[in-house]
Amino acid sequence: MNIITVINAKGGCGKSTIAMNLAAGLGNRGRRTLLIDADLRRPNVAKTMGLEPGTGLSQLLTGQATPLDAIRDTGMASLWVMTAGHVPPNPSELLASERMGSLLDPANGWFDWVIVDAPPVLAVTDAVILAPMVSGVAFVVRSELTPQRHVKRALDTLMTGQPRLLGLVLNGVDLERNKYYYSRYYGYEHTHYYSAPAAS
What we know:
200 residues; Rossmann fold; 36% helix; disordered C terminus
């Protein structure tokens, strides 16, 4: 089982959307995929997917629910979701618990992929707690919105746990407005391809 945590420095980068699209894409390829909303302070997955919060991760970690209670079928191909559940008073303690470690144990073999939507690094310590538990971390940066100093500080903080950083995802790029910069690296033909309307 491969487990990827999707993280950002601060909110507003589209992190949850990236996590959901990644999970849906893996599901569409026939990979049994679970999307977990591990932002127990400001959960977003249930709202974005149009689901009731219901029983979720917080109830599982407090022993009030089993995985079967907390995992829901989304109706999409090979994609299941575990919402954050009720907002608890002690998110960091729950995420550092033995139950969370067991949930993310690759040996359990319930799914091919698990995508974890984690809280922003600079807001709380939760993401730093989660990062060493997973196979790798994808760090989301919002184009022209996330300050470089925030990215550097967040990565410095994150890497204290020595996770495997898979790479950075640059989100919200305006290809038309920034095509000059893309043409410098990829050539005019590639930039034109992205900005031109698709042929009918």
